[in-house]
Amino acid sequence: MKQTGILFFPAFDWSLGDSHPEREERLLYTQEQLFEEGILDLPQIKQFSPRVAELKDVLRTQALFPNPGAHTDGLDPHLIAVGSSLLMGEAQVKGMIHNGFVMARPPGHHSGATVWGNRGFCSLNNEAILVNHLRARYGKRRIAIVDTDVHHGDGTQDIFYHDPDVLFISMHQDGRTLFPGTGFTFEKGGPNAWGQTLNIPLPPGIGDDGYHYLMEEWVLPLVQSFAPEMIINSAGQDNHFTDPLASMNLTAEGYGRITELLQPDLAVLEGGYSIEGALPYVNLSILLALAGEDYHHVREPQKMKRNSIPLSALKPYVQELKKQFETLKPNFKYQAKDFFPAGNWVHSPHSVYYDTEGFQETRHDYIRECSHCPGTLYIESRRYTQKSALIRIPFHACPACEEAGYDLWEHLQKAADISSALLQNQLYDQEFVWERKEGMRQF
């Protein structure tokens, strides 16, 4: 019998406020619903207990600035959400389960390659850390992440934007109408991973038929042609027609059909803030679909009050987006600093707004163009007067990119304007943190 894993972590000790949409009750009603329906008694359902991730698991994927120690006090619930994702991923890889659903909070998909604090309710990126854990420890290589949260998964995109071995797809409400204001079709990947990022910005109110059409017409063919070893669903549930933060019209049954179509190896909970009206029913529908049970009878108590966009009106919009994506050509800006090793370096300046804490991060990203590997990445990141740096030697780095990473790391330790830096040597699964006051340490 194919078993479906399930793991609950409500994070009772982590809250952004009693009236905040991301609060402890998000999973309590779901637990009660699953108990009442007898779902946990099904023979193919296997429950798991949470575990805590190590800081090394995080630093393999994300840089915690200005230094890892500055985040330690507030990271415990986030590390448990990460650790729970790792545990379930390992269970799937080892054949203990066929698929699984990680129902843990806090969420993570707005947390990117550099982390100065919490944004979009996220501090650590659960799915991204899981992906790199499975690559480093279990030899996985090609992984697809399909983000069905109503908000663009900008943090996950940021982490894998230059990685040709990770296909990232985000279908979300148009960034011109919703946080974080990103996720357009021209965001298609870096020079070594062009076309491995697909964003599908959607008009509000497309409903079940629209989502299912998108899955069948565009998402599934792209996933199938990529031929991933594993599919991970960032299972945001704020597309539901009762969600207070967004304006889409998806139903619980519609979520079940998305899950049935995608057939993810793992679903990891992201957003979803209709705590009583949606989450118990959406989670139930997703879990039933994963377990191969009938989800069509799942009905939420409220009735939809808004009309959905007719599929006949949506199809031309989707076809135009698809045409834009397929015909868009690269237009990269090349720029190198004086100390950069030989090669063509693509420069991408941008800023990241931390809405939870109200500050701006200024970033300058440089990727070494390479036809043999994902390329060495160099990021300078500034918050106020603090300036830190990240160097990433990628999985499967070629000798030239590996050497470039070491040269940059040597330079940073002599740079007068850098207060801290992280070297992610994914090639050998080594992480080094350097701080001007404390020196260097390895994780």
Automatic annotation (TrEMBL):
GO MF, one example: histone deacetylase activity
UniProt-listed InterPro entries: HDACs, His_deacetylse_dom, His_deacetylse_dom_sf, Ureohydrolase_dom_sf
Domain called Histone deacetylase: residue spans: 79-276
Biological process terms in GO annotation: epigenetic regulation of gene expression
Gene3D superfamilies reported for this sequence: Histone deacetylase domain (3.40.800.20)
Top-level taxon of origin: Bacteria
Family recorded in the similarity comment: Belongs to the histone deacetylase family.
PANTHER family recorded: HISTONE DEACETYLASE HDAC1 (PTHR10625:SF10), HISTONE DEACETYLASE HDAC1-RELATED (PTHR10625)
Protein name, UniProt field: Deacetylase, histone deacetylase/acetoin utilization protein
